[in-house]
Amino acid sequence: MENNTQQKHLFSISSTDLILQESYPQAVMSDLFKCFININKVRMTTYRAGQAVTELIIHYDNNKTFLFTIWEGALNVPPLSDDDIRLAHKEISLTDITDIMVFVTRFAHHAHLSPQLPSALDSTEVLVFSS
User: Which tens digit of pLDDT belongs to each residue from 33-56?
Assistant: First the structure.
């Protein structure tokens, strides 16, 4: 899977509010799921660092964790590398809140996780997805 920089958004949305089934976003998601087995929880935090930043703390495969940082900016979603897996961290960039939210919910849905609100109201954690 190559990083497709010719697309403006990762996910295309139709005028009837449907997410279009296209090969590039499917390849991006497939690349992720082959690396993460038995995902049992995903914590979503959000904050600002010059622009919007979303982090997914992925809990999977018997107490392993992986940090996924999503910057708001030009579309840049390179495939997971061996170094990403070794460091347990990956950074990508998605163009807007629509791409970010669709990405997060697709990821959680594929892992068969359900969303919950966090218990702390003053936390930057906005959603917790768990089985």
Answer: 888 889 999 999 999 998 999 999
Give long-range contacts, CB 8 A cutoff, 24+ apart: 85-91.
Answer: 85/35, 88/64, 90/66
Q: How far is CA 76 from CA 42, 56, 91, in A?
A: 22, 17, 9
3 state DSSP class of 8: coil
* Arithmetic mean of pLDDT, 12-41: 85
Label the pairing between strands 39-48 and 125-130: antiparallel
Which residues are 41's β-sheet partners? 59, 130
Buried b (16+ CB within 10 A) or exposed e, 105-129: bbbbeebebeeeeeeeeeeeeebbb
- Find the Cα–Cα–Cα–Cα dihedral 85, 89, 91, 97, rounded to 10°: 120
The string of DSSP codes covering 55-66 is EEEEEETTTEEE
Confidence class of residue 73 from pLDDT cuts 50, 70 and 90? very high
